[in-house]
Amino acid sequence: LQYVEGYRPDVVIIDKELLRRTWYFAQLQNHYPSLIQQSQFEHEDFMKELYKFENELPYDPRLIEFKYISLIHSFVEKNWNTRPVYCSPEIEEQYINIYQKVPSGLVFRLYPGNDTAYKEMNTKEFAFTVPGNIDKYSSGLLSFYSRSYMNAGMYLQFYQQQEVAELFLRKGNELQSLLQRNR
After folding, report:
1. In the predicted model, is pLDDT for residue 113 greater than 80?
2. Which residues 6+ apart lie within 8 Å of 85 measured at CB?
């Protein structure tokens, strides 16, 4: 949608797994030049190690992983104060453990540091239609919605927002029950 139809060109989308390939950086540079420019030092540092890996030269796995994590942190740190930064739930903790994750729809908004003060979140319910025939694809999507409801509910519960927390937790449980019945 973004590349072909021009939908939401203001949103920078990064696939962290593709960051493990040099060709992907050319694509990022083409679509989001300021992203690469702002993290130029970390980018160049990582590219040296990535080159070794891709060309089957001797490399240090711990060093390349450290540079990889440093690059991801740089992308977040150098952008969060000019635009909101989000991650999807499947991202591993080692890449975001220095940030506070606040549920925001199907994703999490990242805030710098380990500041645990309550951050406002959108408590609007999701708009989606449960299909009549639940196959493995719709089951996966419904499970994603259920986890998002549960994450929001637990976050709100932690910050004593009990009434709205219960609403989210109930919705998440309802979707889980529906999925259990359709297995």
Report:
1. no
2. 76, 79, 109, 110
Query: Chain-wide mean pLDDT for the chain?
Result: 91
Q: What does each C-alpha distance from 39 to 105, 123, 146, 153 come to in angstroms?
A: 28, 33, 35, 35
| Contacts of the segment 42-49: beta carbons below 8 A, 24+ positions apart | 42/67, 42/70, 42/71, 42/73, 42/74, 43/71, 43/74, 45/70, 45/71, 46/70, 46/71, 47/22
Model confidence pTM above 0.90: no
Top pLDDT among 114 and 68 is at: 68
b/e map 104-124, b = 16+ CB within 10 Å: bebbbbbbeeeeeeeeebeee
On the 0-12 / 13-18 / 19+ scale of CB atoms within 10 A, 145 is middle
The tens digit of pLDDT for each residue in 141-176 reads 999 999 999 999 999 999 999 999 999 999 999 999
Backbone dihedral angles phi then psi of residue 102, each to the nearest 5 degrees: -120, 125
